[in-house]
Amino acid sequence: xxxxxxxxxxxxxxxxxxxxxxxxxxxxxxxxxxxxxxxxxxxxxxxxxxxxxxxxxxxxxxxxxxxxxxxxxxxxxxxxxxxxxxxxxxxxxxxxxxxxxxxxxxxxxxxxxxxxxxxxxxxxxxxxxxxxxxxxxxxxxxxxxxxxxxxxxxxxxxxxxxxxxxxxxxxxxxxxxxxxxxxxxxxxxxxxxxxxxxxxxxxxxxxxxxxxxxxxxxxxxxxxxxxxxxxxxxxxxxxxxxxxxxxxxxxxxxxxxxxxxxxxxxxxxxxxxxxxxxxxxxxxxxxxxxxxxxxxxxxxxxxxxxxxxxxxxxxxxxxxxxxxxxxxxxxxxxxxxxxxxxxxxxxxxxxxxxxxxxxxxxxxxxxxxxxxxxxxxxxxxxxxxxxxxxxxxxxxxxxxxxxxxxxxxxxxxxxxxxxxxxxxxxxxxxxxxxxxxxxxxxxxxxxxxxxxxxxxxxxxxxxxxxxxxxxxxxxxxxxxxxxxxxxxxxx
Length: 491
What we know:
Shape: globular
Structural class: mainly alpha
CATH superfamily of the domain at 27-350: Hydantoin permease
Number of helices: 21
Oligomer: single chain
CATH architecture of the domain at 27-350: Orthogonal Bundle
């Protein structure tokens, strides 16, 4: 195991998508627990958990959905194991699934648009809390003040993304402890106020119950499926890191706080009016603790979106845009900030949260299924230097730069998922025929995995990396992007 990383906490990360050499790697998979815990000790979990009760579920039913939906973090953990194997970002590894050219098309949607939407979603949550606190302090209610708060939260977040991997690992270890302490205090007050004998006024039965359970599972599971960036935060680990340890610490770091604090949100909704989550939670907190809670919400958002903006900047590079990583962070940050301003000033927060979380799984579910299936077929044998080659005839050029099994699986899985999704914005024909039952995640993921596995094997398009273990890379192989992307690692 090496101990000479080139990236250090407190310094802007100079590396983009280029290869992390063996002698530059260090750390242990257990550090991934805090990296994934900090973003998931989340105010948004309170809101999502409350929405399950607002749908009409009983408390045991809501807890069951929370436990089941969060199991999808296992996929995120498994995908993270490809980071140490390849030594490059997840947005480059996905060239193996979709081909050098096909990957660019997919990344524009998953790495740019959806990432920007998640930035807006989380910034909205923090901004709502900050705006509420400003009102309590007597500041005037105005769109200008709202915009200032949004931009301040976004600016701090982008600084984290600019400083990058080493700072994220160090900072998130502290944030995970700090946020847990604050949210445990909130949990104590919620547990005291909760109605443990709660029962809905009109209990759901039959198709209505199935529809609520399906929608709840989709909302809970959508968060885990959105993190196809998990290899980005594992690529600096030594190549021989245990696959089980990388997957386990990643999944458990997200699963544990995800389950606990989403369940607390459900408990809160048994006694509080969680249609306005911030006001409801603050109503049971002592006045002196409210600012601490709001700051914790902001810090959690910084942790969540710092990770998202970091990976989105790597996706911009992977597409071939001639930007170094730090300018790429600013581009994705500007897009996310614009979407946040629109969401806060135009849409109802809780409604927009649920609708978005249900709709994005049409893409993120099949995409995650394709990625995990590819990893299983290759037995996690990814060759970073070959993945970084983009010229015609390269190992991941396939036919015309497109790996058709990957795109076909993504499109087919997405279409099937769309037929099963049920939201206030769109309800698919299958979901409609079944009384609004939303099975978009299992249907889309199953079809995508089956189509990818069958077509890739039938066409024989899996490259030799499936049978050959990659050798350690020499120092001269730092980047092989050639003329398609700026090759220097400077920011």
